[in-house]
Design brief:
The protein is mostly beta strands. 10% of the residues lie in helices and 47% in strands. It has a five-stranded antiparallel beta sheet with strand order 1-2-3-4-5, covered by helices on one side. A four-stranded antiparallel beta sheet has the order 9-8-11-12, with no helix packed on it. A three-stranded antiparallel beta sheet has the order 6-7-10. A hairpin with a 5-residue loop joins β1 and β2 (36-45).
């Protein structure tokens, strides 16, 4: 269906935008005779879109790849570009491995990195900003994640969203100065139930960038 990881990343963002889960393969995608890939998660921040992919290499090691794209004037996503990646020490697609790492916890910080990208936001110096990327390992007991924007000046009531889970790993991208409180949640009738302790995520401190 897709010839390479960039095409899969682009398809995942397109599916996220139209909320069409059927556009993302539910099973590992085989790219060649020895490599398969899955969409771990997507994260859309304005006109920037990010896709985290896991794939098994020809040497049987599991690697992660982060792709990004920009939304064009017609709303479509441009061709996805590779941002970062590398071999992982564990297999986050293995439920038994995930359970061992979590050790009964609901959320665990799984990865953190920073990259400067052109965001075009008014507050960005010459359009570039240092973004901070987080990945969280999520217990299968969680049906989705609750996100509260606790950034300075954020609406304490209105800035709350829910994030569906595509895999055991959730991707977050924060602009400078942002703060998010993330909680594992489960469905409880018509509402949601909080599970476990929250995870605090913070963007780069803008004062350090001056």
């Amino acid at each position: 269906m897709y010839r390479n990881l960039a095409e899969l990343a682009h398809a995942a963002l397109t599916a996220e935008s139209v909320q069409d889960a059927d556009a993302i393969p539910a099973l590992p995608l085989r790219l060649d005779s020895a490599t398969s890939a899955t969409v771990a998660d997507t994260c859309i921040r304005g006109d920037l879109g990010f896709t985290l992919l896991f794939h098994r290499r020809k040497d049987s090691l599991v690697a992660e790849e982060l792709y990004f794209s920009t939304r064009e004037g017609d709303g479509a996503w441009a061709t996805a570009e590779h941002l970062s990646g590398g071999v992982m020490g564990v297999d986050p697609t293995n439920s038994r491995t995930v359970a061992t790492l979590l050790n009964s916890r609901l959320l665990m910080l799984f990865g953190e990195s920073e990259t400067t990208l052109f965001t075009g936001r008014p507050q960005a110096e010459e359009g570039d900003e240092l973004l901070r990327f987080y990945t969280l390992l999520v217990n299968p007991k969680a049906g989705h994640l609750g996100i509260e924007d606790t950034s300075p000046g954020a609406d304490p009531v209105g800035d709350r969203t829910h994030k569906p889970l595509t895999s055991h790993v959730a991707l977050f991208v924060l602009f400078p100065g942002e703060r998010f409180t993330v909680r594992a949640m489960a469905r409880a009738g018509a509402g949601s139930q909080l599970l476990g302790e929250p995870q605090e995520l913070t963007g780069v401190d803008p004062s350090t960038l001056a």
